[in-house]
Structure formats: C-alpha cells, structure tokens
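Chapter review: from sequence to fold.
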Amino acid sequence: MFANADLHIHSPYSMAVSRFMQPEHLLAGCQTKGIHVLGTGDALQPSWQKGWEPYLDNDAGIIIVPQGEIEDQKRVHHLILSEDLGQFSQLRDLLAGKCKSFETSGRPHIYLSGEEIAALVHEVGAFIGPAHAFTPWTAMFAYFDSVQACYGSEKIDFLELGLSADSTYGAGIADLDRVPFLTNSDAHSPYPDKLGREFNRIQLNDRSAKDVLESVKKGTIEMNAGFFPEEGKYNRTACTRCFTQYTLEQAVGYHWRCPEDSGIIKKGVSDRAKELAGGGQPRPRPPYVHVLPLGQIIRTMENVSSPNTKKCRAIYASLIGTFGNEITVLIDAPVAEIRSIHAKTADAIDALRSGHVTLHPGGGGKYGTFSLG
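The token string follows.
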C-alpha cells in the first residue's frame, strides 16, 4: 500500500512552536491533510515522549514514528527516526553529560560532532540523516562540502531536502547517489497549511513504524512532494538587508558586500547546490511534485488577504468534505471533479500540475512569490 508520510515536526518544547501542537490536534490535522504516517517530533524530550505513549495506537489509524532533531557542536541539525520510543530513551542515556538539558529543549544542542552523534544513533538501532540539508543556516551543506566531512566514517540513512530544495538540487551530487531523499514539513503548527506541507509517498507492506523505516532504508519512496524551492527565503544569492539579488560571480566580485547598502550578501541555496554538484549529471530520482497549501491556493484565487475569511473557509470545507483530505485535492482528484466544487481552485490546481506557474524567487531572507496560470 501507499502512504503519505511527514517524518519531521516539533513539539511545544521547541522554540516558536504552537501550544496546540499536541497529539490529539496533530492526529486531527493528519486526517484533514491526508497524512497516514507522522513523526512524533522531539522524542528526546522525556515529557513529550511520555505524552505520545497513549496515541501510538490511535483510532485515526495514523502510524506514529518516533522522531527527533538535534543540533551538534557545529550547529548542524540532524534528524533521527526510530522504530520505538525506547530507542530514544537509550540514546538520551548515551548522550547524558553532552547536553545542558533534555527537559527544557525539544531540539537539544549536543556537544558532539556529527560523526559521534551518528555512531550513537546507530548503536541503538535508529536512523539518522541531515535535517533540511541545503538551508543556509544550521544545515550540513551550510558548513560542509560533503557527507563524509560532516559524518566521517558513519553512513547516513537518508537526507532531508528541506523547504529550500527539491530533488533536482541533490540529484547531481555524487556524494548522495545512493542516499534516499525525504521531504518533510518541519511543522511548528498542527494546521494543514503547515502540517504535511511537504511529505513523502512511500510504499508499505505493514502498518508499523518498523516498516516505515524499512521503506526508507530500501528507498521505496514513490514520490516526494513539497514547495517550489524558489519560494524559499534564501533561494537566490542576495543582500540580507535590501534583498537585491546577485549572480555568484557578482557576489564574489563585491566580496560578499552589497554595493547598494553594504549589507551582507548571502549565498543562495540554488548556487550552493550547483557548486556541490560540480557539473555532475543528475541521477534518477522519484518524481517530485510541487504543491502549495490548499488554503493558500484558495486565498490567491479569491484575491483576499487571508485563507481564514468566511468565504475561503467555506470553499475549503466543501473541497475536504467532497474529497476527504487536502492531499487528494492537490494531487489525486480529477480536475473536472474539483471544478464542480470551485472552478478557480480547479484552474489553479490544473496550472500547478502542468507546471504553468510563474515564480519570483526569494533571497537574502525574503520569501519568493508565485502566480498561477
């Protein structure tokens, strides 16, 4: 069977996370979004770990995968997945003395290298890979030019692309040739505009966390889905003050200082990925489907400031009521059937599926924008 999986979220024990990020709200959000497999988020935090125990078997039928994120001594973030919560308890014991407190931080800072952390993760039988690997901050490729430079002799089990990249950004990097790519939401809110905004469609033989990890290990990922990278705040090389965009050659020529206002020029994810690929030929990867949150699509097509207007909410509810969940509307439902509910949303989804999207890339800390049609 196929399942939609979001394997990276956070808890209220992490910074800037909604207090509504609680298991019951997350399970409800998964049903609205169309997510069948969900990471717990922050499984190293003892109270959050315990709070998930009653929900591992749930009436919604959502497969729960123990998951956490940690920051190493270089500020690189690592995503960890396991079969059961007990493996996170074992890992917490192994990391004792290398963290100020697991109680106060959902995403703890660990005073070890990526290689040392990966070795301990593998010792307890869990999986590890770089989180949001292409992000210019707190990511592997922000500080290292190769997997080995970050993880030494330890192998990674997957690589999370993050909101700043799609499969094309990593497909030409020889270092990643046999590494499965994951696309996850990194959600800080349980609502469908954040939860599952990026997800993986994976093949499962059994409804268990163990089978989910086995699918990741084998690379039986049928599809990745997520944002257009151009929407990201750091897609293009640009000034972090005035957001003027530059080519990589111009940035080097200006010594990474903006000639307009002397602001720092930040290298864009697009240019960084090209550097890492070094002109290498892209390797085949599962299809990557570019999606946008349904509420955002409705808001755009209705030309209003918020998807929470009464009209937008009514259109959204009608679509969910008809098709069951948001992912079905975005990816699977026939456009003609969507049109019977709301013609403008159908036109937008048709444009998305056919690639008729005009993108205005972001950079320097300013989000990109898009128009449909």
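Two observations follow directly from the output. Residues 45 and 102 are 5 Å apart (CA to CA). Residues 310-323 form the longest helix (14 residues).
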